[in-house]
Amino acid sequence: MGISNELYERSRKIAVAMLRFEAVILLALIVYLGLLDAFRTKPLSAPLALAGDFIGLALGAIGLFACSMSFKNGKSWGRAPAVLANLIALGVAYFMLSGKFYIGAYPLGAIAFVTAGAAVLGYRE
To answer: How many domains does the chain have?
Structure first.
């Protein structure tokens, strides 16, 4: 007994949109960190750490976008990375909650929950 065609199609479209939205958020973080560094009054004490952040965020955005292409084309290879990335994001949201950073935890948790659910339901064998 599988899921209906309508639920599958809707979940697949939601997964594509949410994964691309997450990729755009990561790219926006690159721009934000770059601007933050550009307008810094003191010299940066660890420029390689910032470069590592840029590289990590860029690779994450590329990976999320590639997963969205997998869902768009009806292929299965992007399902597991999409679910795993969003389960990790749920864990990050939990730790944000424990640190009382509610303004970041609730949006991250909601986005990750919706995307993980859509990724699970958006592919059928």
So the answer is: 1
